[in-house]
Amino acid sequence: MTEIKKLPKRDEVPVALTWDLTTIFKDDAAAHAAMKQVENKISSVLKFKGKLQESSDSLLQVIQLELAIQNDLEHIYVYAELKNDQDTVNNKNQALMDQVASFVANVSAKLAWIDPEILAIPEEKLAKFQAEDAALRPYSHFLEVLQLRKNHVLSSKEEALLAGASSIFDSSSKIFGILDNSDLKFPFVKNAEGETVQLSQGMYATLLQSTDQEVRKQAFQQLYAVYEQFRNTFAATLSGEVKVHNFTAQIRGFKDARQAAMSQNAIPETVYTNLVSEVNSHLDLLHRYVSLRKKILNLKELHMYDLYTPITGKSPLSYSYSEAKKEAKQALQILGEDYVSHVQEAFDNRWIDVVENQGKRSGAYSSGVYGTNPFMLLNWQDDLENLFTLVHEMGHSMHSYYTTHNQPYQYGDYAIFVAEIASTTNENLLTQFLLDKYDDPQIKLYVLNHYLDGFKGTVYRQTQFAEFEQFIHEADANGEALTAEMMSDFYGKLNHRYYGDAVINDPQIKSEWTRIPHFYYNYYVYQYATGFAAASSLANGMTSQRSQAREKYLNYLKSGSSDFPLNVMKKAGVDMTKTDYLEDAFAMFEKRLNEFEALL
Ligand SMILES: [Zn+2]
């Protein structure tokens, strides 16, 4: 008899396994009341319109009011967003999210005059203001970052127009999200135990790790059959998104969307091009690893759905959620007592939404704002992969924790460019911890394989995504239509170049772009690859020279956006304008690949 496993409804999930959003707002009514209060603050800030140049004091007051309103908006937004993500099919949550999104757009439009007006202050005058008023000093880097945009800010009228249209610009990614998270219905398939399970994004990842090739094949084919059915819709949403990026870059006077995205954090484009060329010159290592995979799995044909199953068979390690919490704390011990005490705080105070339920957003993330807990969303399954996800998201949340507790609001967030370093350093530390802890060659092999797969998925795969992203942005800028066919055609060839001849380039993989949410994030993915490589360097430093490296590392976690990302990382010990850190990461990959081969 086969048992049908269905996901629980949201209200069937045990409270202890859900996040506590009442720490942001007691209830929806409180969120609505907060919106009312924002309206009042807006009227105070509007009194300064046109008067910013008059004195350093009016400049200071406007900056402080603007930041206070921003922080209020963030609280309201994150409350609505997390609530919606926990149950995307709940109409009440959807309605609140919609309402909040348009409220935020509305308020942004009302404040859109501020930045252009600050930027219109002549440089000498701004310098004089800062020199004569000590109260402005904590905002000097904030003003410096704003100056970077000087040549790219439009008139107040145009800025207001753009800000008011922001929710329209967001439609493509919003439609993608709704289709991907709630409307797509996946069929039932058999898992390795012969049970009938409903395919979902979380379940797909688990099934692809199955040691039974037929299970993997079915999951792969069934999943792509669903996506392919909607490929033209996905092409339309992705094309719409790319047009927003290109249009925005163009009207703001950037060379292209990539320059626009990277210049926000003063990151030179060579960081991107260095990554792509370094990865391409090390594709031989990926090909070697993939061929090894084929040999060990003893398969006549290695398919795309065979790339995620552990080469070393079924996992010798599996963790219930409570076991995973213990293991995570031990692995992160190297970061010090203080760090681990905050990890415990996350476990004890319901910062984490743990298990999957009907309508819950797929994947995992860490999210919170200045003044809220750094929450985490998981879709827990009892395996090693999920332990890695837990320490990954914990890395983000601890980064947020340290930043918001050590910086003022204006520097209390951090650029995405440095964000993935905090999370993947934890993954690297967990890898080293497990390799040290276990002598059993079966376990060592499994962990090494996990690392090699992680490197493949983060450094190689995300750079592959980055190349695709570059292609679609360029094609659109050149006036080519982004149809499903042309994108699939490019993607298929790109995939073959990355994985080489040892893998069958299954036709379904051409459509992989349809299901990658990150293509809607605007030059986001390359940062996973650069971040992982930098993290590899940092974790290595901490395991070899401990306390000094740890202190530098914690300093990076505490820095927030008080300096430009590349400077923050330089102080932590990695110069990301050079290629050394990438070379180091590939050297580690090669070393562990050799270890892996030797153990076999
Ligand atoms: Zn992450």
TrEMBL record:
* Cofactor note text: Binds 1 zinc ion.
Q: Which residues form the Oligopeptidase F N-terminal domain?
A: 117-186
Q: Which domain of life is it from?
A: Bacteria
The UniProt record lists the EC number as 3.4.24.-
Arranged from A to Z, the UniProt key words for this protein are: Hydrolase, Metal-binding, Metalloprotease, Protease, Zinc
Q: Which residues form the Peptidase M3A/M3B catalytic domain?
A: 207-587
Which Gene Ontology BP annotations are present? Answer: peptide metabolic process; proteolysis
What molecular function terms (GO) are annotated for this protein?
metal ion binding; metalloendopeptidase activity
Q: Which InterPro entries does the entry mention?
A: OligopepF_N_dom, OligoPept_F_C, Pept_M3A_M3B, Pept_M3A_M3B_dom, Peptidase_M3B
This protein's cofactor list reads: Zn(2+)
Q: Which family, according to the similarity comment?
A: Belongs to the peptidase M3B family.
Q: What does this protein do?
A: Has oligopeptidase activity and degrades a variety of small bioactive peptides.
Q: Which NCBIfam families match?
A: pepF (TIGR00181)
Name-wise, this protein is Oligopeptidase F
